[in-house]
Amino acid sequence: MSTSYPTAIPRRRWLTFIGFVAVAVLPLAFTGLFVAAAGDGESAIDNIPVALVNNDELQTTTTPEGEEQIVFAGRQLVTELTGADGFEWTITNSSDAEDALARGDVYAILTVPTEFSESILSLSTDAPSQAQISIRTDDSHSYFTGSVAQVVGQSMTDTFGRAITSQYIDGIYASVGELGGALSDAADGATQLADGATDLSTGLTSYTEGVDSLSSGLADLNYGASNLSGLTTGVSEYTAGVSQLASTLAAINPAIQAQITDPQLKGTLQAVVDGLNQASTGGGTLKTQTADAVGGIQYGISQSASGASQLAEGSGPLTTGAKELTSGAKELSTGLSEGAALVPTADDATDSTTNAEIVAEPITLSVTTDNEVSEPAQAIATFFIPLGLWLGALAVFLVLTLPSYRSLSSTARNGRIVAATLIRASVVTVVQAVLLVLLLHVVVGVDWALAPATAGFALLMALAFAAFHYFLIAALGRGGLVISLFLLAIQLTSTGGVYPIEALAAPFQAVSPFLPLTYAVEGMYTILSGGSPQSAITAAFALLALGVVSVALSVFAVKRIRKSAATGAILSAADSRAL
Length: 579
Hints:
Blueprint: H1 9-38, H2 41-46, E1 49-54, E2 59-62, E3 68-71, H3 73-83, E4 88-92, H4 94-103, E5 108-112, H5 116-121, E6 131-138, H6 143-258, H7 263-342, H8 349-360, E7 363-370, H9 376-399, H10 405-408, H11 414-442, H12 451-476, H13 479-494, H14 506-511, H15 516-529, H16 533-578
Parallel strand pairs: 1-4, 1-5, 6-7
Antiparallel strand pairs: 2-3, 5-6
């Protein structure tokens, strides 16, 4: 049951009207604030600061034309990153990047390793290696930034990797062209080899024919030589006849000289004539046999000469064919060797599979996380526990009554009046905090070693939020609860922690440092993620200040209420006397 105080009605009508208007537009405020805070999601990512460290070392390679070419793939990657949408890149060195990540000035570090270009160049060798890019995040600053960085990094490596693979395939096509040239040379050598083999075959045929002709001629020569025996016989007969003639002439020579008309001389002369006839006959035979023998010899010699000529003619193509055969074989060997050199080798099937996987994914991404929050539920709980305590404090003052008129009109001090109501509200909010801490450790699975920190911080939040809501009620009456809902809508859209504050629109980033939930979420998130104790201490002092200031303002508001109540009582008494 609520308590109302006598007031000057004209002065409070406008507050009632404002309260009705606020209630009417409250749903619109929630929706509009969320839409305005989200804004353009793509441009929001562009505002998230990320450090970019390029440790790549340039490499030199020799082109097929023999020219040296400088390869600095890391610089090309940095250009691709900074020129495209996604994150606010800050190019720096490793040491400064680590310091910035620890302070929370950046949410992630993307590092290009020293061997990046070397790994890219290795793709065209027999032992390719993957180039690895690393992303380092810190969950104590923002949970979702690590996931976003991983998605953006993976997308980047996939895009750049596809470009590298495309260049590699272009190189394969170029190598295939060179291989085709080498095999073309090998084909030319094979053609010459075939031509040489043809000429060799022709030469061998001519050579065989020449050998056959030579053999035939030698056979004829042998046959002619066998006829030379007839020449020997004829010559012998001729010699015998001549000898006989000589003997006869020798016998008749004295008689011829004595008497020429002697009949016996005639007989002798007749014998001479006969001998001469016989010699003549033997000479004819000798002539015939000699002619036959000589003819056979001449024919054999002619055949031998013809065979030798054909043999000589066959030896020319044979020599040419042999030379072409040798030249073609050398060219074929050279072409095949060049072709083999252009084909990458692998020791075994495993190497081939590994190389194929490397070429398909030339760039990989490794992600390391400092102060990692392993469970998404834990990260989300750090946001909803402060939210629950805020709503819990609001609900408490929907139930609790304001200080009674008797207490306000009493002589009790203002602080005592405030404490009387605030203690009752705090008891309820403390119970709420304990229940939420138990939920955090039992259901969500947060390590019990963190229970003292989570419980202490949750109790601090509960007391601070109770004091703040007491102030709203004391200063604005029930309208203060409507203001609490408006503040809740603003805080839900302006509080970081789970997500980077830079992802919000500029006006919400500006008001975020002045909102209670900002420090509540940051402190609880830092405790769960194991981040810097300084952040949790800062958040605790901010909540403590909120509670102290709220109590002080509540005392001041109660003082005004008591003054207003006294004024209302005087006016009421004056009206009664007037009647």
